[in-house]
Amino acid sequence: MTDFGIDTDGDGAIDYTETDADGDGYVDTVAYDSDGDGQIDIIETDTDGDGFVDTVVADTDYDGVPDTALSDTDGDGVVDEVLVDTDYDGHAETLVSDTTGDGYADTVDVDTDRDGVFDVSAADTDGDGFIDTAVADTDGDGIFDTGVADTDGDGFADVAVVEGPFQP
């Protein structure tokens, strides 16, 4: 393993490091202290050894806990997933994914009640850039019980499904 560190602001603390974890001569991990507080805030990693960054993990509120992650899961150089901890509690509430590899988000999953389980999911199923289906777990039992879909692509919901029992 080879490490390389740089003090970019001259304060005596390393602000930037490069690591060749597998000894192949290519940098596998780059870590940054972006705000100069001595704590790493951004880590970029080449997980598959192709010389390109596949994941980025960031601590955007500088509390020492990562709250944003970006991943290139198919190795094409384009981010496929973004995971965000919107309330900075250490648990991700939003996942945005490009499942088709076209560079555009196809699905959005949200944990609205912050229990660690995504309870709302929306998707662009026909690739036109607009959400076509959305489902939600409204009672917290882990099962989606409400859903809407735009089946004809006009931008309006054509189908709505709600699980009973219904209360008047």
Question: What would you say this structure looks like, in words?
Answer:
By secondary structure, the protein is an all-beta fold. It folds into two domains: 1-75; 93-168. It is 0% helix and 32% strand. It has no helices and 13 strands. The chain has strands at 2-6, 16-20, 29-32, 42-45, 55-58, 68-71, 81-84, 94-97, 107-110, 120-123, 133-136, 146-149, 159-162. The chain has a 13-stranded antiparallel sheet, with no helix packed on it. The chain is elongated and about 60 Å long. The termini are far apart. The model has no long low-confidence stretch (mean pLDDT 86).
Please give the structural blueprint.
Elements: E1 2-6, E2 16-20, E3 29-32, E4 42-45, E5 55-58, E6 68-71, E7 81-84, E8 94-97, E9 107-110, E10 120-123, E11 133-136, E12 146-149, E13 159-162
Antiparallel strand pairs: 1-2, 2-3, 3-4, 4-5, 5-6, 6-7, 7-8, 8-9, 9-10, 10-11, 11-12, 12-13
